[in-house]
Design goal:
Elements: H1 8-13, H2 17-23, E1 44-47, H3 76-81, H4 85-101, E2 104-108, H5 131-146, E3 151-157, E4 170-172, H6 175-182, H7 184-193, E5 197-200, E6 204-205, E7 208-209, H8 214-224, E8 230-233, H9 241-247, H10 259-269, H11 275-293, H12 305-319, E9 321-325, E10 338-341, H13 366-371, E11 378-380, H14 392-403, E12 407-413, H15 432-444, E13 448-453, E14 468-471, H16 479-488, E15 501-502, E16 520-522, H17 531-536, E17 541-543, E18 554-562, H18 565-568, E19 570-579, E20 585-595, E21 606-615, E22 620-628, E23 634-636, E24 641-643, E25 647-656, E26 659-668, H19 684-688, H20 694-708, H21 717-728, H22 733-754
Helix pairs in contact: 2-10, 2-11, 4-5, 4-12, 5-7, 12-16, 14-15, 20-22
Bound molecules: beta-D-glucopyranose.
């Protein structure tokens, strides 16, 4: 029954202290506690990011595999590869409808942690290595689910980028990196889409558990981002309940058998916390309670699983990425004889293991989907799913089938034991049997197409030997249909990578600092994550961020950047895209910002806008995005603020991070520098950053040059050394070089600067 509170303060005052404390933790694994006297009912929240995992058995039982059937959509890796927020919104709505039909009031997702290393076991659930893309996809997902009155829980806040020691490890990350890389996806989604709840991560950040990290949970989340919803812990992430409460934690999940409820009561009695600290959390929980119970007033939304299966097929169709298509091997022509190879064709890997594991409503296999169109197709298993070792007989059978066909399609990838929640991968290799099978089949049949099912990048030692590769990720329950649609040309592929595929594990930016030790993992690569690293150091990659082919060809023209960052705080970049081929298709135009000045080390370029468009043959459209000031800023930790350095910026309209089509340049005066106190240890180059003090700087330079006049021939090494020294020496050297006269000048300019 719906629940409404007319006056929250009065309501809280009517509660006993024990009642308040009891609301601060769950009843069991999935339910909140009821207080019948006050009309507060217990309600359910459940996983997860790409479907609803409502446990069918008793809530006390932690069974991952026994849940109510629900549509299993592609996992996060695929969702971000669609670059299609509208479609993800539609999917979110469908997930919300299913949750509502089962009385689930909050779905625990989306999961937006940044893919710092391709090894993270949970990358299949996460969206991207890029915070902008992750934020945009998460926003759409949250809005979709919440549009039907079901809440979300964006997770895992924050800096949870590995599974190794995830419940204990201390992620040591500098402030600038935190702000530029690990927080923005949360920030964007939380401020724009307002998820009803936020789930804190298990790990520590810079010495403090996320669950009791006041800087994250209160200063940033609430004070800076203005978040008013409920902060729920990841399951058992609560360490010290009282510290957590003080830091801004509202709901501890799952239940704690009453231990922590008593700890809270005791802490108030002992004066360690005040009743107001408890009331703050209770107020937020009551507001959430009103929201979730409103579901009971709403009519049931009719849906059928068949239409959601079709939606899952569409999402999977936009998730899959055509990585390579030499000699136009794809799409398959209708009259070819096909050998379909690999056990995944029959027993697909379509989702990952762990808390996100959905009980699907049905599963479409690639074998069935292709057989419907190619009845004389031959199928060979190729490998056993239970082991990574080569099965010679199965492999030989597959090679025979390939030899007798016109085209071989090899389904390969990672089996469950290779990637999962709870542990990280240790290498980027496919099972030995999969690599060997691809090599053997490609040797027998040059027209070999590889279809990959995996949640994160893999090495492809055979890449030069096969003409076509389709990265299907973990495509959800309708993934088989979607892959068949792409192979046969019914769907024109339009997915683009939301992460870089490195050539070797050793190339990854955090290679030497992942996963760290039991105690700590240091984020020494700083902001240089994914393509931010590869592009800055000009490292070759297997496939770059943003890459994905289409059967159509798109041309870009007339990039125009309008407006002024200095006058209005944003610019609009627009470009004309034309489909110059004979088939309809979708293109994602990516806008990267590349700073030309280097006040601090910055990535070569960063994604700051994108737009996906659908174009008929010959059709053109104008695509435009707004690039706001944040798109040009870096986080200045010294002044705790976002800053735009003055100078030139390139805006690149690109088909991938490495396929830059058009470049425009803008200039900006940059953010005025904050006032500061000047001292004897500042330098002329510090003064030169403040245009209003140009005269002061030149007075100092003239004075010093005068003292050194004639000591060096212009253009010699000595002259260059002097000039560099004049710019960078502490001002106190004025006295040391210039005696009393220099000292007087020093006193005068410090007075001017500090006036
Ligand atoms: C996971 C969360 C999940 C929760 C409930 C935790 O172990 O980290 O993502 O929502 O369990 O299943």
């Amino acid at each position: 029954m719906a629940f409404r509170i007319a006056d929250t303060q009065a309501f809280i005052s009517s509660m006993t202290f024990e009642e308040k404390a009891s609301l601060l933790s769950g009843k069991d694994f999935w339910y909140t506690k009821a207080i019948p006297r006050l009309g507060i009912e217990s309600w359910m929240m459940t996983d997860g990011p790409h479907g609803m995992r409502k446990q069918a058995t008793s809530a006390e039982k932690v069974g991952l595999l026994e849940s109510v059937p629900a549509t299993c959509f592609p996992t996060g890796a695929g969702l971000a590869s669609t670059w299609n927020p509208e479609l993800i919104g539609e999917m979110g709505r469908a997930m919300g409808v299913e949750a509502r039909s089962e009385g689930v009031r909050v779905l625990l997702g989306p999961a937006v942690n940044i893919k710092r290393s391709p090894l993270c076991g949970r990358n299949f659930e996460y969206l991207s290595e890029d915070p902008f893309l992750a934020g945009e996809i998460a926003k759409a997902h949250i809005r979709g689910i919440q549009s039907v009155g079901v809440g979300t829980s964006i997770k895992h806040f924050a800096v949870n980028n590995q599974e190794k020691f995830r419940m204990a490890v201390d992620a040591i990350v500098d402030e600038r990196t935190l702000r530029e890389i690990y927080l923005p996806a949360f920030e964007r989604a939380i401020t724009d889409a307002k998820p009803w709840t936020v789930m804190c991560a298990y790990n520590k950040v810079n010495g403090t558990y996320c669950s009791e990290n006041g800087k994250l949970l209160t200063e940033i989340l609430r004070d800076e981002w203005g978040y008013e919803g409920v902060l729920v812990t990841d399951w058992t992430a609560c360490d010290d309940r009282v510290e957590g409460l003080l830091a801004g934690q509202d709901l501890e999940m799952p239940g704690n058998g009453g231990i922590n409820d008593r700890a809270v009561v005791e802490a108030v009695k002992a004066g360690r916390i005040s009743e107001a600290d408890v009331d703050r959390a209770v107020g937020r929980l009551l507001a959430l309670h009103e929201r979730v119970m409103a579901m009971d007033d709403q009519p049931r939304i009719a849906f059928d699983h068949a239409s959601h299966h079709e939606l899952a097929r569409r999402v999977a169709g936009e998730s899959a990425i055509l990585l390579k298509n030499a000699r136009k091997t794809l799409p398959l022509s209708p009259h070819k004889k096909i050998a379909l190879i690999g056990a995944f064709a029959e027993r697909p890997r379509y989702q990952g293991s762990g808390s996100s594991h959905i009980q699907p409503t049905k599963i479409s296999t690639l074998l069935d989907a292709l057989k419907a169109q190619y009845p004389d197709l031959t199928y060979a298993r190729g490998y056993r799913l239970e082991t990574g070792e080569v099965d010679e007989a199965l492999q030989a059978e597959a090679v025979r089938a390939a030899r007798e066909a016109d085209v071989a399609i090899v389904c390969a990838g990672l089996t469950d034991i290779y990637e999962s929640e709870g542990f990280d991968r240790v290498h980027l290799k496919l099972p030995v049997s999969h690599d060997a099978l691809i090599e053997a089949v490609a040797a027998a049949r040059p027209e070999t197409v590889v279809v990959l099912s995996n949640g994160a990048p893999v090495e492809m030692p055979w890449i030069s030997k096969v003409p076509a590769v389709l990265e299907a990720y973990l495509g959800g329950q309708a993934g088989g249909l979607a892959v068949a649609d792409i192979l046969t040309g019914k769907t024109n592929p339009s997915g683009k990578l939301a992460e870089s595929f490195p050539l070797r594990l050793e190339d990854t930016p955090c290679f030497l600092n992942f996963p760290g030790s039991r105690e700590r993992v240091e984020y020494r690569e700083g902001v240089f994550v994914g393509y931010r690293h590869y592009d800055s150091v000009k490292e070759a990659v297997l496939f770059p961020f943003g890459h994905g082919l289409s059967y159509a060809t798109f041309e870009y023209a007339d990039l125009i950047v309008a407006g002024s960052l200095d006058d209005s705080g944003s610019v609009t970049a627009s470009v004309t895209v034309t489909n110059v081929s004979h088939i309809a298709g979708k293109e994602t135009v990516q806008f990267y910002v590349s700073p030309k000045s280097n006040e601090v080390p910055r990535p070569e370029q960063e994604l700051k806008g994108f737009a996906k468009v659908s174009l008929d043959p010959g059709e053109s459209t104008r695509v435009s995005v707004t690039l706001d000031s944040r798109g040009f800023s870096w986080y200045d930790a010294d002044h705790a603020s976002w800053r735009i350095s003055p100078g030139a910026y390139e805006i690149r309209a690109s088909a991938s991070s490495r396929d830059v089509r058009l470049i425009a340049e803008i200039q900006t005066r940059g953010t005025p520098l904050p006032r500061r106190a000047w001292s004897r240890t500042d330098t002329v180059s510090d003064i030169l950053r403040y245009s209003e003090f140009k005269n002061v700087a030149s007075e100092v330079l003239t004075f010093i040059r005068g003292k050194f006049a004639g000591s060096a021939e212009p253009g010699t090494a000595e002259d260059l050394m002097n000039e560099a020294m004049f710019l960078e020496m502490p001002l106190r050297a004025l006295g040391q070089f210039g005696g009393p006269e220099g000292d007087a000048l020093l006193a005068r300019i410090l007075a001017t600067l500090n006036a």
